[in-house]
Amino acid sequence: MVGVDEYATRKGRHYGTVLVDIDTRRPIDLLPDREASSLTAWLADRPGVEVVCRDRAPFFADGAAAGAPQAVQVADRWHLWHNLSEAAERAVAQHRHCLRALVPAAPDPELEPTAEEKPSSSPWPTGHRFAERTRAKHATIHALLAAGHSKRSVARQLGMSQNTVLRFSRAETPEGLFVGQWQNRASVLDEYKTYLDDRWSEGCTNAWKLWEEIVPLGYKGSYQRVRAYLHKKRTSPQPVTARPPSPRKVAGWILSRPETLTEPEQLQLKTVRTHCPELDALTRHVRSFAVMLTERQGERLPDWLDAVRQDDLPSLHTLAAGIDRDRAAVVAGLTLPWNSGAVEGHVNRIKILKRQMFGRASFSLLRKRVLLYR
């Protein structure tokens, strides 16, 4: 039994192939590339290979089929789940409008701001050290450019990279550089903001009491964070409500075991499924595949593929088409006990060896260090 996977000698540019004995979990050989022809030649010289564990890369599938037609190909279960998780996140992103059901509609403001009271478009207040530093850099760069200096000259004078100077030069105002900065980072309070908004609408505005209410629900943050959020609701001229969760977060709920989700997460996922039939179908398909994977029920794969094709989920249709082209290996991966875990461990060890060699040694020396490692 042989496990095969790729490793990077130069990430994004050049890759090799590592082969591992699945029984002994020891590396057998290293190939200088990941071409199907190289794997075919290696397997052709070893006709005794009965099982090939691999990911779903087409060059490994073609090489194994040509070099060892008698061998059973086994698609790795982790890679199958990873492919499904990527497809699930794309499906949730395509229905992101359904996630707004998790956020209560904000009431219309009673008073429209006058021209003199028009709020600043900047998310950073005047006096904030990040904002002031950015404004100063913006003014300096634009002054030098207006004086006739090139962007390269400005970067050299100010000790900045040319990309930074280019980004500042393209922004007409400093406020254009603030979008997407720290103010939009995820917070431990995010998943409890909907609950706080509901309680606020009911008339409960005491920060300490609300903090005590969400702690039993699983909140691990501080009281000060709750107080700051409620203070913003009190003082902001515009209604402050929770943002809908990101597609990645909702996909994480769908991909998790139901019993591991907190009560607020279970309620929010239930709300999403109620308001969006497509995401409800996605959740059912993901959980069905999870049972099939964990309980080794590969014979159910054809029925799962047929069920997926009946729903309007293009990202899952793409995944199903890819699985159909590699159906025999996927069924084997969902049925047989073997996987590529040992190979992934050696890929990680190869990364360590490359760093120890500073990327300056030849392939032959790397191969010796991998194969002779004790």
From TrEMBL:
Query: What residues does the HTH IS21-type domain cover?
Result: 136-200
Q: Please report the name of this protein according to its UniProt entry.
A: IS6 family transposase
Under the heading Gene3D superfamilies, the entry gives:
Homeodomain-like
PROSITE patterns reported for this sequence: HTH_IS21
Task: Outline the segment boundaries, as ranges, of region: Disordered.
Answer: 106-128
Residues forming coiled coils: none
Q: Which Pfam families match?
A: DDE_Tnp_ISL3 (PF01610)
Report the domain of life of the source organism: Bacteria
